[in-house]
Design brief:
Helix content is 26%, strand content 30%. By secondary structure, the chain is of the alpha+beta class. It has one domain (27-307).
């Protein structure tokens, strides 16, 4: 009887292992990864990459890595010049997050991993308009990742996401759509907006704060990146934005659909700093942080800044 129980347990464990392996392979196959070769310069786009320390606002000795993919202006006699001009207004941001446990941030391959699906630049560019027009919910980790080539080795992100931005400097009087980085806006801070919102909505809290949920669909018309301030970094113009995107329900995981909460943008460099509360808030107990800590970070508009710009 004991031998039979032992055999049954062994078979059970083997089946579980096979299931986990198959699940992992399936998940890997469904994910598409954008390939960046750090040892070469792409003809169609430029890449700017930055490392952000999580110490300042999340209290851990980890890093968030940002990769800005910015299309180049390329003249093509067979193409309408307006298309080429419109193309360079897109900015694709890949952010790689720490796992916040003992797991590595990157998986290393000694040679090109043929079992990984690759997202081409043309496909990334083709998806740009739909990503902007259709709510622009960021691409989840199980959908998009990033694969880095350095030397002969490859490094795949274990937890990352991709978000699409559109760069257009509309006049301040225009009602700018969501997902547009517009540096011509009149600056308004989160604290200033909080006062206006609470007055207009009779004491309700601004619904970008944790555990504050909107009761009106009016908020959907307010969703966008708001310019908070203009300043100088290393003799360059810099612009800090915050995102108005209410949390419409209780999340039981990382709220990837929220996207970047606050960010610093430098023209021709891309996004050089930011905060990703939607990811770190879910892990607040592991970080030793409270909801109040996150509320304070939001109201003070704290961001992580790339090391070279500190």
């Amino acid at each position: 009887m004991r031998k039979m129980q032992h055999k049954t347990e062994v078979v059970k464990n083997v089946l579980i292992s096979i299931f986990i392996s198959l699940f992992s392979v399936t998940a890997l196959a469904q994910q598409t990864n954008f390939l960046i070769d750090l040892d070469s310069i792409a003809e169609e786009y430029s890449v700017s990459r930055f490392s952000l320390s999580t110490r300042d606002i999340y209290g851990t000795n980890d890093s968030v890595y940002l990769f800005n993919i910015m299309p180049k202006y390329i003249e093509n006699p067979r193409e309408n010049p307006e298309f080429a001009k419109d193309r360079i207004k897109y900015l694709f941001l890949f952010a790689v997050f720490p796992t916040l446990n003992s797991d590595e941030q990157w998986t290393t391959y000694e040679k090109f991993p043929h079992n990984i699906n690759i997202l081409s630049f043309n496909q990334l560019l083709a998806d740009g308009p739909s990503n902007i027009e259709l709510k622009n919910e960021p691409k989840m980790p199980d959908r998009y990742g990033i694969l880095i080539k350095k030397g002969q080795k490859y490094y795949k992100s274990n937890i990352s996401y991709m978000q699409t931005f559109y760069l257009n400097n509309y006049p301040s009087a225009f009602n700018v759509p969501a997902n547009v980085i517009n540096i011509n806006q009149q600056p308004i801070s989160i604290k200033d907006m909080e006062k206006i919102y609470e007055t207009n909505y009779k004491g309700r809290d601004l619904p970008i704060i944790p555990n504050v949920y909107p009761e009106d669909f009016d908020n959907m018309g307010l969703e966008r990146f708001y310019l908070s301030r203009k300043f100088r970094i290393k003799n360059m113009d810099a612009y800090q934005f915050w995102t108005f995107k209410p949390r419409y329900g209780v999340s039981h995981g990382e709220s990837w659909e929220q996207g970047i909460d606050r960010f610093i943008y430098i023209p021709d460099k891309g996004i050089v700093g930011g905060s990703f509360d939607f990811y770190f808030y879910y892990h607040r107990q592991k970080l030793g942080m409270t909801t109040l800590d996150f509320k304070n970070n939001i109201k003070q508009e704290k961001v992580m800044l790339a090391e070279q710009y500190k």
